[in-house]
Amino acid sequence: MNITVIGAGYVGLVTGACFAELGNHVTCVDINEQKIANLQNGIMPIYEPGLEPMVMANMAAGRLNFTKSLAEVSAEPQVVFIAVGTPSDKDGAADVKYVLEAARNIGARINDYCVIVDKSTVPVGMADQVQQQIRSELSKRNLAIQFDVVSNPEFLREGAAIEDFMRPDRVIVGLSSNNAKKIMLDLYLPILRSPERLYFMNVKDAEMTKYVANAMLATRISFMNEMSVLCERMGVDIEQVRIGIGSDARIGAAFLNAGCGYGGSCFPKDVRALIKMAEKNDFAPLILHAVEDRNAQQKNVLPQKIVALFGEDLTGVTVAVWGLAFKPGTDDMREASSLVLLDNLIKRGAKVQAYDPVAMPAARNILPSEWLTSGKLVLTEHQYDALKGADALALVTEWKPFCYPDISAMKSLMKQYIIIDGRNQYDPRQMRDAGFEYYGIGRGSIPARSRQVEVVTA
User: Fold this and answer.
1) Given a cut of 90, is residue 265 above it in pLDDT?
2) By three-state DSSP, how is residue 453 classified?
3) What tens digit of pLDDT does each residue of 352-382 get?
4) Could you tell me if 133 and 23 are in contact, meaning their C-beta atoms sit under 8 angstroms apart?
5) Is 266 a catalytic site residue?
6) What SS3 state is found at 201?
7) What residue spans in the chain does CATH classification 3.40.50.720 cover?
8) Residue 43 to residues 8, 52, 60: CA-CA distances in angstroms?
9) Given 28, 231, 260, 266, which residue is catalytic?
């Protein structure tokens, strides 16, 4: 099948590479000329396990191509995926200008029946607007070409996107045409093996499903984070509570880990967009507001714990930070908890030494250059370099290399043996037996005191 994917970002690139891997002929289109040039030379714009070798293999096989314009797509597509960004607008609503621009370009180029698939996360009713834009462009060309617009939201987890695409637990498709249904079945049956996991519904239902799914997962996280605060005040271990409620079949264990807040490109913007959709329909989304508020507060938990230990003025305090990406398996730092932690620490005068296995290039691009040039923030070459002379270690991202650290090396490098675990990755008893002060999330409160540290002056 000939497939065109508009947008060579995270969703578009994974979608294009995976469909090419299945034997289709795929062209990814992106207006960012540098990104296209890099992809043509095998340079990936994102880190995603398994993506680079898949892209390279399918380029070599002639099944995957990259171009900067729809006009350069040689074969007439049977399916066109719209996989462009829909970032939050100033008021929190999804900014859909790139989707509408893609629709206009499609209408200006197609010459035969095809299925246009909204893969981007779009507000309810967006498919109607896409259809209107395409019809308008076709009318300018005096053409009456038939086409269908389908909603096919993505449910890819960063760090596991290839696995999620090739072995999905479900595929959601919103449509109103038998022709489109047949084509979508042909596309997805090779990876589903059975049509039972391909759920067909109305277009608006599919558009809403994406938002509600992400909002539900965000709600579970925020709920557990709120319970972790209560647990700390009552001397309860949230990890034991998590195990207890996660074993209930009605609840399940997924997304029950307390931590220092969620981030990334999906949950924050999708919760905000759903709030805005509710408000535009004269509905007060009380739970969604609470989810968002709790997450914002949770991102301050780590700096609050550090202040409780060392005082408001952190001058002379060196904090090691392990993990900058919003989650393991990605270099994505959008709305990461690390950003709030770094900002708090540096504004209070602390020196920060940070390391992430993958996100260091992204950190250098997005963090204030003044932090780096002034020495307030040092991005280290190795995870243990971050510990040199540190008064405390804050774990933010639960990367696998951080799971079983070298305790002897840690104690030989750190000035004070304090661990503040933002993901409850370590066993408190083991760490305390090893001689560390250990503070997790919802696993005991910080002593009501300020630690005196030696202030080093120039």
Assistant:
1) no
2) coil
3) 999 999 999 999 999 999 999 999 999 999 9
4) no
5) yes
6) strand
7) 2-201, 299-439
8) 12, 8, 14
9) 266
Across the range 39-67, mean pLDDT stands at 97
The CATH architecture one would assign to domain 210-297 is: Orthogonal Bundle (1.10)
Three-point CA angle 49, 54, 59, nearest 5°:
145
Whole-angstrom CA distances from 173 to 53, 102, 150, 202, 398 are 29, 20, 7, 8, 34
> Which residues on adjacent β-strands are paired with residue 392?
319
Compute CA distances 438 → 14, 160, 297, 434, whole Å: 39, 31, 21, 10
CB atoms within 10 A of CB 250: 5
Q: Global pTM?
A: 0.91
- The topology (CATH level 3) of 2-201 is Rossmann fold (3.40.50)
pLDDT at residue 50 tops 50: yes
The residue type at 412: S
- What is the phi/psi pair of residue 353, to 5°? -120, 115
**Backbone CA torsion sign across 22, 26, 32, 33:** positive
The angle subtended at Cα 280 by Cα 278 and Cα 284, nearest 5°, is 40
Return mean pLDDT, the chain.
Answer: 95
Q: Which CATH number is correct for 299-439, 3.30.70.1450, 3.40.50.720, 1.20.810.10, 3.40.605.10? A: 3.40.50.720
Q: What are phi and psi of 444, to 5 degrees?
A: 120, 145
84 has pLDDT over 60: yes
389 secondary structure, DSSP code: T
Q: Tell me how far apart the alpha carbons of residues 163 and 50 are, in angstroms, rounded to a whole number.
A: 9
